[in-house]
């Protein structure tokens, strides 16, 4: 108890350094000079992982079951987290499985500056387990409260403007509801629920994430319509029915998030109606494994691309289009050629191991496994 | 001249080398697939322990005016620095823990507590040294540019100073390494040696000044009145770490049996040949768990050179399998006690300080460098032979033993010949002495005789006169 208080007290000043600046950083700088080459954080996070400001961390304080295959994780971020994100943004979360950190992005589901019980500032994400997604299944079924996770700052342009537009349409399916949930909760909290129609599709009633909350919002706010489409019994939501159900859809600022097929259809529909500028789409990376051998490699900062087979190393690929990649031994032993994989998948040619977005890859012994982008 | 033909030297066929390579690959694979929580915990605990030791050491040194506190603090700090250097800095920078995908324990971001910047060391070490291990003219770690560690290198008068240079290098090892790496970095970047304001130079200067300021100014100053003794303690801890790092490195690369290769060897080198070069080019020393840990598991230098990026805590189990392969292919596995391995290196350092004309062996059959020609007049470099009855193979290890035996035989034979020659000489001397004595006696007799004749003559003359 006393220890907890002490901890809170120690963390208190840092709760204000959202931008990681201020006096604390001066102190950090001074201490770092003495502890070189280590930083104060190297010692601090031994005492408490949340005290690291070099890298954002968080502690999972609660795991709430949403549906059979989804859960909400409530996380208490450590030093330096910026709580002033915008509703609809996502964060990166790194979690330790079998000794290895795995990174994924998930939409925040809470409104900005959300304070939980006891005045703690918290964030929440909702995760839906994917059939072969090792990480998401782990998060939904296996992660315990108290687990330390790494966090990447909130980002993304799929956001609700402030103030919200007068007329809004949300089109979501499955876990596509998560960024929209953050927007709805923000509007609710600020008592600014405008004329909002939310069409959400899920196979059955039991699969609807946040079902009770949606109903509650629907009941409490006359200007909010929650339209649930249970696809197992009623089939897919037909975009043509919009004309009949919500004839003013063309005037509504629209946010859509869900499976790629649905988003493609929506995009098409809005384009042919000539209102593409009213549509905001979030295509979140579906958690899946590499799609195959070879693919199109993009060298991020140079913008150069190249299609290669599954046996060509990324290093050779880059060199063949004139991209200057670092290298040394060219045989996988010196780590000179390590580059971050910013999107897509790659495969270690020596053992077939897969590399995910955010991983660092040795380009001399890795090949594209589907389309991928290197951060160089 | 060092090894130019690894197939010939190892008594293996190209196919043998390929299967050996595959077997080594599968060792790698099995470690890779079994890496997990246990290994991650190992490195995290090592890091935590190292930091605790360091903090404890620094804290105790606040009382360093007391003799015992000084000793304790210095010991703690020395151990902390050794662990940081060997098990953490060296191994993390090799990418041994990159698989954890932890940005804080990653080869691209780790900075170590040594004078030189990690990044420069990584280039010099991971690339130059580990790719071109023991290739003359390519691996700059061969003698670190100041010691002549093989008679493949021409002798120059400066080598006479080798014994002193060795001591200096040992005591200031981190500085030696730092300057060495800076040189390689500049060379790789094509920056002239004399230019002192290039980015690598600035990076170097920044790191050096932080390191020096930390150990020799800031921490001593923090301890206030104890600053002098803290300064001494910090210097001692650095010295201890330097000596230990030096000893471990030298035992891993310079004892007899760690072979050297010529540059032609690199032409079209296969993965299997690369493995062989690593295996033959390094040496282990025997260590228990504590010493293994303190050496950053570099007592398993052979395993480290075969698999530089596998987690160090797994080298001991890899070693068992590598030894089995050595037995199977009848290859040497160079190891010995720390003391013995160091003495062998020490002997080479001192021997090679001398010009070649004082040395007996050549670079084909010297203890520190041999080549396939070593076997030429002993046995034909026979390819791996399998005993049809026992299934036992005869290869390099047996050939080396044969070579050693035949060298010994040759030496014995030479000694024998020498002894015989000595005996013969002695006999001749005796004979000549006898002859001399004989001649002397004869001469003496002749002299007596002549004297008698003369006396006789004189007497006769006197007699005539008397008679007249
Ligand atoms: S170039 Fe050496 S590991 Fe890729």
Provide an overview of this structure.
The complex is a heterodimer of chains A (376) and B (468). Chain A has 376 residues and is an alpha/beta fold. Chain A folds into four domains: 1-37, no CATH class; 57-155, Translation factors (Elongation Factor Tu (Ef-tu), domain 3), CATH 2.40.30.10; 167-282, Nucleotide-binding domain of ferredoxin-NADP reductase (FNR) module (Rossmann fold), CATH 3.40.50; 295-374, Roll (Ubiquitin-like (UB roll)). Chain A contains ten helices and 17 strands. In chain A, the strands form three sheets. A six-stranded antiparallel β-sheet of chain A has the order 4-3-6-1-2-5. In chain A, strands 12, 13, 14, 15, 16 and 17 form a six-stranded mixed β-sheet that branches. In chain A, helix 5 (177-189) links the parallel strand 7 (167-173) and strand 8 (195-202). The N and C termini of chain A lie far apart (49 Å). The relative contact order of chain A is 0.09. Chain B is an all-alpha fold. Chain B has two domains: 6-335, no CATH class; 396-467. Helix content of chain B is 62%, strand content 1%. Chain B has a two-stranded antiparallel sheet with strand order 1-2. In chain B, strand 1 and strand 2 (393-394) form a beta hairpin. The longest helix of chain B is centred in the C-terminal third of the chain and has 72 residues, at 396-467. The termini of chain B are far apart. The relative contact order of chain B is 0.12. The chains are: A alpha/beta (376), B mainly alpha (468). Chain A binds chain B through residues 33-38, 42-43, 46, 54-55, 94, 96, 98-103, 328-329, 331-336, 338, 350-351, 353, 359-360, 362, and chain B through 25, 28-29, 32-33, 35-41, 48, 51-52, 55, 93-95, 98-104, 106-108, 111-113, 118, 122-123, 126-127, 130-131, 207, 210-211, 213-214, 218-219, 222, 271, 274, 308-309.
């Amino acid at each position: 108890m006393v220890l907890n208080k002490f901890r809170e007290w120690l963390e208190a000043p840092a709760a204000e350094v959202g931008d990681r600046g201020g006096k604390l950083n001066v102190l950090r700088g001074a201490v770092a000079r003495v502890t070189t080459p280590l930083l104060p954080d190297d010692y601090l996070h031994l005492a408490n992982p949340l005290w690291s400001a070099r890298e954002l961390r968080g502690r999972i304080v609660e795991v709430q079951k949403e549906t059979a295959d989804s859960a909400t994780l409530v996380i208490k971020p450590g030093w330096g987290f910026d709580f002033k994100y915008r509703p609809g943004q996502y964060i990166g979360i790194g979690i330790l499985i079998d000794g290895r950190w795995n990174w994924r992005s998930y939409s925040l589901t809470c409104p900005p500056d959300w304070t939980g019980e006891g005045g703690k500032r918290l964030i929440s994400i909702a995760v839906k387990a994917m059939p072969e997604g090792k990480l998401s299944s782990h998060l939904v079924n296996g992660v315990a409260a108290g687990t330390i996770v790494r966090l990447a700052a909130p980002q993304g342009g799929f956001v609700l403007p402030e103030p919200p537009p007068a007329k809004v349409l949300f089109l979501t399916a499955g876990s596509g509801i998560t960024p929209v949930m953050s927007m709805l909760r923000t509007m609710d909290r600020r008592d600014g629920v405008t004329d909002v129609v939310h069409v959400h599709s899920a196979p059955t009633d039991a699969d609807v994430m946040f079902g009770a909350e949606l109903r509650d919002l629907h009941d409490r706010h006359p200007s909010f319509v929650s339209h649930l489409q249970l696809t197992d019994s009623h089939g897919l939501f037909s975009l043509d029915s919009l004309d009949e159900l919500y004839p003013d859809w063309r005037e509504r600022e629209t946010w859509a998030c869900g499976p790629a097929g649905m988003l493609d259809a929506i995009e098409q529909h809005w384009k042919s109606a000539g209102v593409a500028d009213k549509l905001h789409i979030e295509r979140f990376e579906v958690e899946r494994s590499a799609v195959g051998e070879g693919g199109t490699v993009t060298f991020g900062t140079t913008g150069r691309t190249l299609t290669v087979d599954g046996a060509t190393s990324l290093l050779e690929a880059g060199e063949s289009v004139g991209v200057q990649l670092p290298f040394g031994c060219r045989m996988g032993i010196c780590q000179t050629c390590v580059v971050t994989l910013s999107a897509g998948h790659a495969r270690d040619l020596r053992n077939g191991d897969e590399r995910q977005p955010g991983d660092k890859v040795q380009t001399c012994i890795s090949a594209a496994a589907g389309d991928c982008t290197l951060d160089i | 001249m060092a090894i130019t033909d690894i197939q010939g030297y190892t008594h293996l066929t190209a196919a043998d080398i390929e299967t050996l390579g595959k077997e080594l690959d599968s060792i790698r694979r099995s470690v890779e697939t079994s890496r997990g929580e246990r290994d991650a915990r190992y490195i995290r605990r090592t890091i935590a322990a190292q930091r605790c030791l360091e903090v404890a050491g620094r804290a105790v040194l606040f009382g360093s005016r007391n003799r015992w506190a000084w000793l304790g603090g210095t010991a703690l700090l020395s151990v902390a620095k050794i662990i940081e250097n060997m098990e953490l800095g060296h191994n993390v920078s090799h990418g041994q823990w990159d698989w954890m995908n932890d940005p804080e324990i990653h080869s691209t971001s780790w900075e170590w507590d040594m004078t030189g910047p990690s990044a420069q060391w990584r280039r010099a070490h991971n690339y130059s040294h580990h790719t071109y291990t023991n290739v003359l003219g390519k691996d700059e770690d061969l003698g670190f540019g100041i010691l002549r560690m093989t008679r493949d290198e021409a002798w120059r008068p400066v080598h006479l100073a080798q014994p002193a240079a060795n001591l200096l290098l040992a005591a200031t090892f981190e500085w030696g390494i730092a300057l060495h790496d800076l040189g390689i970095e500049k060379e790789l970047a094509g920056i002239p040696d004399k230019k002192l304001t290039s980015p690598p130079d600035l990076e170097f200067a920044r790191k050096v000044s932080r390191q020096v300021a930390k150990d020799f100014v800031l921490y001593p100053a923090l301890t206030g009145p104890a600053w002098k003794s803290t300064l001494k303690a910090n210097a001692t801890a650095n010295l201890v770490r330097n000596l230990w790092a030096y000893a471990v490195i030298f035992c891993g690369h310079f004892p007899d049996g760690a072979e050297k290769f010529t540059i032609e060897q690199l032409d079209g080198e296969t993965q299997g040949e690369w493995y062989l070069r690593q295996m033959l080019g390094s040496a282990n020393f025997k260590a228990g768990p504590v010493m293994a840990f303190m050496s950053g598991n570099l007592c398993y230098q052979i395993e480290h050179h075969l698999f530089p990026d596998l987690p160090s805590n797994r080298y001991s189990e890899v070693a068992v399998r590598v030894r089995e392969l050595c037995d199977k292919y009848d290859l040497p596995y160079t190891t010995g006690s720390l003391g013995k391995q160091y003495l062998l290196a020490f002997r080479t350092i001192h021997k090679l300080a001398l010009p070649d004309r004082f040395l007996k062996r050549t670079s084909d059959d010297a203890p520190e460098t041999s080549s396939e020609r070593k076997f030429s007049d002993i046995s034909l470099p026979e390819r791996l032979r399998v005993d049809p009855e026992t299934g036992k193979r005869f290869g390099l290890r047996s050939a080396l033993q044969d070579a050693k035996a035949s060298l010994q035989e040759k030496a014995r034979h030479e000694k024998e010949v020498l002894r015989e020659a000595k005996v013969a000489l002695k006999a001749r001397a005796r004979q000549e002495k006898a002859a001399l004595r004989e001649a002397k006696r004869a001469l003496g007799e002749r002299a007596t005789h002549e004297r008698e004749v003369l006396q006789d003559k004189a007497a006769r003359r006197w007699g005539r006169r008397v008679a007249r």
